[in-house]
Write a sequence for this structure.
């Protein structure tokens, strides 16, 4: 199991919070736009498909400590 | 549809999911397959927990026989094991499947 | 073939642009009285973690200059026509949101449980029989439900103490095993630091959870439900 979040310093938790917002929040443009973060086109369907991208960044953060 | 039918349905879906995902998986931590697998397994685990809660409510409410409780409990336990096994095969920490589903969670 | 990575929705007539991501051109995609600031690429790259944070910095600069709505990172548009159609699909909502939210900032409050959940609490129980399994899972669900109730109570308390208008608060309880509460508070410019300080004081007084207060940031969490006609 990866290190508990509660053990991380404030700055790292702030980065995770920000990453969560960058990848999961913000205006969603209808129809014409595709969301593509990892080189895979994921047309927005109302699903939280970027779920995994947040964890990838979170894991990157924890690995680089 | 009773709990047995629902579990059978979920088990079929799980087998179907295994069929859809590629045979040879590149277990690269940044991999796309892993990302899709994680999404799918998170959904499956969410549904499994919904069924589990329903079974527990019926157990507490006295509407399941002892035999049914035992059968449903075994089925749910095996399903949970299967999900963990699949997660580990994709290099996913099973504990990471307990993430909120956001909008999907509200739909379900 | 050019592709455009959208950063914000804004009103036409904004400030002169800085550069886009990776030093690439930043373009205004016109949609009438509203439009989209986007970085122009010659081909669609794989976006990196650095790109995400560069997008954040750019959104911050644009929001400092004029009311803006942050667009979800990773949103690609083929051309100006596509941008125009996207804006027309939700024009009233974008205009209303720019009025209400465009000039404001977001303060984030995150509470983490101090005690970790047991493996059983997380869902893993190996038992000798199906019945024993269900009984152990019942206890685990009860513990999870209790945590959620505690988190909801914290959310209600913090929300009522930190915001006059509850429309200025968004929160999610127990988004994961470790996080009790993820909350966003909308602040007027110039008031964000004071809000942060109040939140930090309140959070320091809570037992059972560890709190982190962050921001101010562009209003990401207050822009999300706009634009998608078939979505949430």
């Amino acid at each position: 199991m990866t290190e508990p979040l509660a053990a991380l310093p404030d700055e790292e938790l702030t980065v995770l919070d920000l990453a969560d917002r960058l990848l999961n929040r913000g205006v969603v443009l209808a129809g014409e736009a595709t969301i593509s973060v990892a080189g895979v086109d994921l047309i927005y369907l109302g699903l939280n498909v970027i779920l995994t991208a947040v964890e990838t960044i979170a894991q990157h953060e924890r690995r680089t400590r | 549809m009773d709990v047995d039918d629902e579990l059978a349905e979920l088990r079929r879906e799980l087998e179907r999911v295994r069929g859809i995902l590629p045979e040879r998986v590149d277990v690269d931590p940044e991999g796309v397959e892993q990302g899709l697998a994680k999404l799918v397994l998170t959904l499956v685990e969410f549904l499994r927990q919904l069924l589990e809660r329903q079974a527990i409510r019926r157990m507490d409410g006295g509407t399941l026989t002892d035999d049914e409780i035992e059968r449903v409990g075994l089925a749910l336990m095996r399903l949970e094991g299967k999900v963990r096994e699949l997660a580990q095969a994709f290099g996913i920490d099973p504990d990471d499947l307990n993430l909120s589903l956001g909008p999907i969670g509200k739909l379900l | 073939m050019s592709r455009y990575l959208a950063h914000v929705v804004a009103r036409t007539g904004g400030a002169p642009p800085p550069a886009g991501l990776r030093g690439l051109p930043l373009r205004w995609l016109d949609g009438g009285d509203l439009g989209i600031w986007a970085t122009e690429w010659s081909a669609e790259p794989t976006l990196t973690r650095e790109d995400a944070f560069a997008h954040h910095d750019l959104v911050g600069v644009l929001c400092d200059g004029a009311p803006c709505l942050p667009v979800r990172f990773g949103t690609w548009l083929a051309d100006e026509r596509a941008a125009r159609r996207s804006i027309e699909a939700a024009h009233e909502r974008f205009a209303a949101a720019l009025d209400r939210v465009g000039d404001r900032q977001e303060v984030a409050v995150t509470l983490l449980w101090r005690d970790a959940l047991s493996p059983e609490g997380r869902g893993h129980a190996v038992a000798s029989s199906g019945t024993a399994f269900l009984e152990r899972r019942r206890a685990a669900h009860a513990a999870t439900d209790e945590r959620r109730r505690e988190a909801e109570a914290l959310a209600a308390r913090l929300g009522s103490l930190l915001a006059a208008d509850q429309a200025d608060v968004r929160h999610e309880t127990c988004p994961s095993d470790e996080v009790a509460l993820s909350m966003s508070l909308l602040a007027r410019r110039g008031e964000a630091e004071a809000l942060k300080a109040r939140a930090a004081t309140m959070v320091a007084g809570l037992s059972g959870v560890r709190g982190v207060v962050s921001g101010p940031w562009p209003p990401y969490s207050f822009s999300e439900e706009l634009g998608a006609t078939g979505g949430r």
Notes: The two ends of chain A are 16 Å apart (CA to CA). Helices of chain A lie at 10-24, 51-63. Chain A touches chain C through 35 residues (CB under 8 Å). The longest strand of chain A covers residues 34-35.
